[in-house]
Amino acid sequence: MSGHADVPNASRDGVPGAFNRGVPGVSREAAGGGRLVLLGNAIVDLVMRVPALPERGGDIVSQDTTLTTGGGFNVLAAARRLGLPAVYAGAHGTGPFGDRVRADLAREGVEAPLPPVTEEDTGFCVAFVDGGGERTFATSLGAEARLTGAHATAVLAALRPGDLVQISGYGLAYPVNGPVLASLMARLPEHIRVFLDPGPLADQIPEEVLEPVLARCDWVSCNQREGRLLTGRNDAREAAAALAARLGRRTGVLLRADADGCWLVPPGGEPAHVPGRRVTAVDSNGAGDAHTGAFLALLGRGLDLNDAVRGANAAAAFAVTRHGPATGPTVGELLDFLDGDPLAALLSSALRR
């Protein structure tokens, strides 16, 4: 069945250095030499493809079942495939799921500096992908939900100038991780950029955890449902504007609106509608992560906001045409996908240097 990706295909004023606006002592070049540091959760996904979700109390036979690493891994993989160094700074367990996560991180060239949590395995998620490409989840928590103050201190000590920290609402909603991450946000140096994806659990994050994170964010990216949970606004433009107002002028907003594209509010700017790229979607699982990873990678490689958004749009459009959660493109795949688009030459110059 066909669908359409929520991938924007236009942008704003293209101000150079928007990635580090207002940060004294950190050049655009320094940002380009930084890493993506994920304060999220890499877990194992059990993905089941079904014609439709069963009725309550019913059953349905999966057409295809796969076991793959997912969660925050999808963002890391998308960024690494576009050349940005990446670090998984979350907790991971001791057991077959933890082993699988570490093996997949190593395969993608992602560092995992924290030692495994003993006597507990990494958690997993059952993802149902229906005939329209939509996904529904049920998650079992494991070691990734056991972040400690010692973990946070180790992460803080390992950060470098120019690093970009990405944090997920999943971790903020966890009873153990949330307070640890909120405390860590308040201790981050000013030169560290912070990007928040509030995720499906946005309305389950305690205010005392969410507020200090929002106050420290440089970017927030969410879908329309998450925007509504954070602002109470159903209209995508109104939600983007309300979220930007809540965050303040130093923070940018990306609000994805399915087939309608997205609303982009650059730091200190006004909401602008960005039309979507229409593609035949076979699996939307991980599409938002592909967009996030590509957006961060392109910003981290020194591209202007204008071109980073356009490149991320293309990466997400590519991702929904592939099965699986970690389907962000490599540099070659992205350039092939953009064949004939002037953006391809620009990205080639930036990503292949």
Which secondary structure elements does this structure contain, and how are they paired or packed?
Layout: E1 7-8, H1 28-32, E2 36-39, E3 42-49, E4 64-71, H2 73-81, E5 86-88, H3 96-107, E6 124-129, E7 135-140, H4 149-158, E8 164-168, H5 169-173, H6 177-187, E9 193-197, H7 207-216, E10 219-223, H8 224-231, H9 236-247, E11 252-256, E12 262-265, E13 272-274, E14 276-277, H10 287-300, H11 305-319, H12 331-337, H13 342-351
Parallel strand pairs: 2-5, 2-8, 3-6, 8-9, 9-10, 10-11
Antiparallel strand pairs: 1-14, 3-4, 6-7, 11-12, 12-13
List keywords for this structure.
353 residues, alpha/beta, single chain, disordered N terminus, 13 helices, four-stranded mixed beta sheet
What is the gist of this entry?
With 353 residues, this protein is of the alpha/beta class. It is built from 13 helices and 14 strands. 36% of the residues lie in helices and 19% in strands.
Fold and architecture overview:
By secondary structure, the protein is of the alpha/beta class. Strand 11 and strand 12 (262-265) form a beta hairpin. The strands form three sheets. An eight-stranded mixed sheet has the order 5-2-8-9-10-11-12-13, sandwiched between helices. A four-stranded mixed sheet has the order 4-3-6-7. The chain has a two-stranded antiparallel ribbon with strand order 1-14. 54% of the residues are buried. The chain is built from 13 helices and 14 strands. The longest helix has 15 residues, at 305-319. It has helices at residues 28-32, 73-81, 96-107, 149-158, 169-173, 177-187, 207-216, 224-231, 236-247, 287-300, 305-319, 331-337, 342-351, and strands spanning 7-8, 36-39, 42-49, 64-71, 86-88, 124-129, 135-140, 164-168, 193-197, 219-223, 252-256, 262-265, 272-274, 276-277. The model is unreliable at 1-32 (pLDDT under 50). Helix content is 36%, strand content 19%.
